[in-house]
């Protein structure tokens, strides 16, 4: 009898207050859907937390410590800002920062060559698919294989590049990656060659999305090729350029495999980059705190450059 009276009372309440009953039912359904969504997303959240967020937090914490991970957690000593002071007193670190800043030049050069090639393929080439694949192949190829091939090309004595220079009458061609004055320049050439295909494909997609009516209207007004390039093509491609600029600059701060295969930071630290210096400090010299400080500085560099670009894009990017 009690159960029947409770149910009758609930029914009466629902009849008297239908809005409240509907809200209760709706909130229960929403809660159930929310927990179901959390359940489906939880594997990814757990993976990101363990593999990404925790290492980031550990890096920031260890940048204020001195630790040799082989000895164990008991050897951790908190040293405050000593690691950061040691960074800016270290000539190798300062050299790696300068090399990274010079390496940034590969980004605009890659974008410029990629845009020229994309325009030529889009406007003046018939077998477009073949050239797309041909230029894109280096980007999807193994960077280790690319480095080995270029190592042969840059061989100071029997390499094809120096053989061509000798045949042209240049008696003392550069020794490329073996010369401290040319080593970084050589790595930059390889980086441009390997990255140009990706930028070209992105620019091609941007070019093909520009409405043809704009070019037809410009032709009717008697616009020259340069005018169409300056006032139609460049503004229409500005979002694409912004994307390539951001991703390209971030990519230059992550260059590691080319250095590891070709030069190992040499000769005389002429090709040492921040990531390579970080690797040597952490896994060769076992200075985890110092290496974590390098990672924090690298994070700050990338963050500042990205924020500056993000703010500046309002003045030149047209959506």
Descriptive notes:
The chain has 319 residues and is an all-alpha fold. The chain has 2 domains: 2-62, no CATH class; 104-272, MetI-like (MetI-like fold), CATH 1.10.3720.10. 75% of the residues lie in helices and 1% in strands. The protein contains 15 helices and 2 strands. It has helices at residues 2-16, 18-62, 82-88, 91-103, 106-124, 128-140, 143-153, 160-167, 183-208, 212-220, 225-236, 238-252, 257-262, 274-284, 288-316, and strands at 65-66, 77-78. It has a two-stranded antiparallel sheet with strand order 1-2. Helix 2 crosses helix 15 and helix 5 packs across helix 9. The longest helix has 45 residues, at 18-62. The radius of gyration is 29 Å and the shape is globular. The protein starts with a helix and ends with a helix. The mean pLDDT is 85.
